[in-house]
């Protein structure tokens, strides 16, 4: 079992976002932790550091920072942009709309009213004139695609958004949405942001094939499954666990403890950091454009950058497949469950 680093660890990789001509970094700075698990000053420093190290793709959402108040994270990013220095111009900015922003019945979902009002609110909080990637945070089963696309078209025509993305969709949602957009001669969805990691591989069945067929980029959230794949057992043992001790990771640890134990041992034997192995694995999966990482420290950001150049050999990949097998027969449906 071996692994090698290709190229300079200081060199960022860029790729096109789906079928668009837009160039984005293969690491995307997720902002869920900023200002919540960091101080304001630490958040500003981390965004500056990411930008200086070539990360030009930032991802947020209207509801992020709800621990303080909904919209808090967008406000934080807006204050960072307001410092000038070309910060806004250098960033490809993605945010999201769907989740309830208040108790009012129309302050949620994907109605035309909420899409347009939500965009206006995000622009104000972000202190910017445009959003590069406006993502639907979840499918709204009550909203027709005609209504959704009419609203998105208005925002594009007004110059308030550049592209539309989705998040947490099913494969058939992508197909239905894109076919409706095609009928309107509208660009439609250019990327899908989904949970994907060694533990959670559902998207391989239909979502990834659908995205590839329509020329949509895949953006991966929770590549470490909430910290489970980042050396969870070691961190719990030495008392340094943060995310691992709560939420998705703590629940999954009970189900996957044996596999995670073997995984951490495998990484140790190969002389590799578990987080970097997990990131390298998902970065090199078919269809993956960019991986959303949510570092709280510069050291965590450096680890993600090292994973970009990490090439896992066939032996190590085979052991990972054994530890965290795909669903069914592996690969896309119907072959994953049939012949």
Question: Strands, helices and their partners?
Answer:
Layout: E1 3-5, E2 14-16, E3 23-25, E4 27-30, H1 40-52, E5 57-59, H2 72-81, H3 87-90, E6 92-97, H4 112-126, E7 131-136, H5 145-157, E8 161-167, H6 171-183, E9 189-195, H7 207-213, E10 217-221, H8 232-238, H9 247-270, H10 274-283, E11 288-293, H11 298-308, E12 310-312, H12 314-323
Parallel strand pairs: 4-5, 4-11, 5-6, 6-7, 7-8, 8-9, 9-10, 10-11
Antiparallel strand pairs: 1-12, 2-3
Helix pairs in contact: 2-4, 4-5, 6-7, 9-12, 10-11
Protein name: Aldo/keto reductase
GO molecular function: oxidoreductase activity
Organism: Streptomyces rochei (Streptomyces parvullus)
Please list the strands of the largest sheet in the order they lie side by side.
Answer: 4-5-6-7-8-9-10-11
Give the overall shape. Answer: globular
- What's the helix count? 12
Rg from Cα: 20 Å
How confident is the prediction overall: mean pLDDT? 95
| Range of helix content | 40-55%
Keywords: Oxidoreductase
Domain NADP-dependent oxidoreductase: 26-322
GO cellular component, one term: cytosol
Protein name: Aldo/keto reductase
Task: State the gist of this model.
The protein has 339 residues and is of the alpha/beta class. Helix content is 40%, strand content 17%.
Can you describe this structure?
The chain is of the alpha/beta class and 339 residues long. It has twelve helices and twelve strands. It has helices spanning 40-52, 72-81, 87-90, 112-126, 145-157, 171-183, 207-213, 232-238, 247-270, 274-283, 298-308, 314-323; strands at residues 3-5, 14-16, 23-25, 27-30, 57-59, 92-97, 131-136, 161-167, 189-195, 217-221, 288-293, 310-312. Pfam families: Aldo_ket_red. Keywords: Oxidoreductase.
């Amino acid at each position: 079992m071996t692994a090698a680093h290709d190229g300079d660890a200081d060199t960022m990789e860029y790729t096109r976002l789906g079928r668009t001509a837009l160039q984005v970094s293969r690491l995307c700075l997720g902002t869920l932790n900023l200002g919540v698990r960091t101080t304001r000053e630490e958040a500003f420093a981390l965004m500056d550091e990411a930008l200086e190290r070539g990360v030009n793709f930032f991802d947020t959402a209207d509801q992020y920072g709800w621990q303080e108040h909904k919209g808090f994270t967008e406000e934080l990013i807006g204050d960072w942009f307001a410092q000038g220095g070309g910060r806004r111009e250098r960033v490809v900015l993605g945010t999201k709309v769907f989740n309830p922003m208040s108790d009012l019945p129309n302050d949620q979902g994907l109605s035309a009213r909420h899409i347009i009002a939500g965009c206006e609110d995000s622009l104000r909080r972000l202190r910017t004139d445009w959003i590069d990637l406006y993502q639907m945070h979840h499918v709204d089963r009550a909203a027709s695609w005609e209504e959704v696309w009419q609203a998105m078209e208005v925002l594009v025509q007004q110059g308030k958004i550049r592209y539309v993305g989705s998040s947490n969709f099913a494969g058939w949602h992508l197909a239905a949405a894109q076919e409706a957009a095609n009928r309107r001669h509208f660009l439609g969805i250019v990327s899908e942001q989904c949970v994907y990691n060694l533990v959670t591989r559902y998207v391989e069945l239909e979502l990834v094939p659908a995205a590839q067929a329509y020329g949509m980029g895949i953006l991966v959230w929770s590549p470490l499954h909430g910290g489970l794949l980042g050396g969870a057992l070691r961190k719990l043992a030495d008392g340094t666990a943060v995310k691992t001790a709560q939420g998705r990771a703590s629940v999954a640890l009970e189900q996957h403890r044996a596999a995670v134990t073997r995984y951490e041992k495998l990484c140790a034997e190969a002389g590799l950091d578990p987080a970097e192995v997990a990131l390298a694995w998902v970065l090199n999966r078919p269809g993956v454009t960019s991986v959303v990482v949510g570092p709280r420290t510069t050291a965590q950001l450096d680890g993600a950058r090292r994973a970009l150049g990490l090439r896992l050999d066939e032996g190590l990949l085979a052991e990972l497949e054994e530890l965290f097998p795909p669903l069914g027969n592996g690969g896309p449906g119907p072959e994953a469950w049939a012949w």
